[in-house]
Structure formats: C-alpha cells, structure tokens
Design a protein that fits this description.
Blueprint (H helix, E strand, L loop, with lengths): L1 H30 L1 E5 L5 E5 L12 E5 L4 E6 L4 E9 L2 E8 L2 E12 L3 E12 L2 E13 L2
Length: 143
C-alpha cells in the first residue's frame, strides 16, 4: 500500500511539473514576435489613492526574438537592446549597453496570439507617504 501511494505521489508530482514547465514554454513561444503598444487600453492604479495626470506613454514596440534578445524603439526614436526571459508569469528585460546592465520585471496578466497585457509595479514616496503604482500596458502583435 505504501509503495502504491508513493508511486501515485511521484506520478502526480511529475504531472504537475510537466504542466508548469509546458506553461512556461508556451509563454516563451507566444512572446516571440513584434508587439506594438496600444495606448487606448492604458490604465494605472495607486494604493493608497493618488491624484495623477498620467494618461499613457509614448507609442513604442518590442521585438522579442527566439534567441531571447529584444529590440525596443519608441516614437521619439529611443532605441534599446538586451535580453529577455520568462519565469512563470514574470517577464524580465535586461538592458545591455556600454557600461550598462539594468533589469526590469513585468508581470504577464494575459497573453494570446494577438494580445499581451503586462503590469509594472513601482513604489514612490511623496509627502511622507509611500505609494504603490501599478501600470497596465496592452500590446498587440504586429507579426
């Protein structure tokens, strides 16, 4: 009985690990492509409540390549290159440049073949109060 219970437990653990590994792999393969920012669905939340006039950001796009490198460009012609990785629902970008290596993390809220929604969480202090800022970015696949 103990041997059978151990076998079932090992099989269950293997199935759970297989599913979670496949989910990460699915995210990685779905992310490859060119993603264009869609300002029409931009949203920001503050905790505690905070008055802000932030209504979006400049138009930009990411090209996420199969070799885990990325290229970013915005409407002001700012360009950035680096590497990307995904672990669970965390999408990490590591910017590379002369003497620069800076990383930032976004949380994947939803992802399919045509649409990617991520959040970026920041903290800032103003007037002695620390605020949590959650920015929601929506991207549409170009290719």
């Amino acid at each position: 009985m103990k041997h059978r219970l151990l076998s079932i437990s090992i099989l269950a653990a293997f199935c759970i690990l297989s599913v979670s590994c496949n989910k990460e792999k699915d995210y990685a393969s779905l992310l490859v492509g060119i993603w264009n920012y869609d300002n029409s669905e931009f949203k920001v939340e503050y905790t505690p409540e905070y008055s802000s006039n932030l209504i979006g950001c400049v138009s930009h796009s990411y090209q996420l390549r199969e070799d885990k490198t990325y290229f970013y460009v915005d409407e002001d012609d700012y360009k950035e290159e680096g590497t990307w990785s995904v672990s669970g629902k965390e999408l990490t970008f590591t910017k590379n440049g002369p003497g620069v290596q800076d990383s930032y993390v976004a949380s994947i809220q939803s992802l399919d073949n045509q649409k990617l929604v991520i959040t970026v969480t920041n903290y800032f202090t103003e007037g002695g109060i620390t605020y949590k800022e959650v920015l929601y970015y929506t991207y549409k696949r170009l290719e």
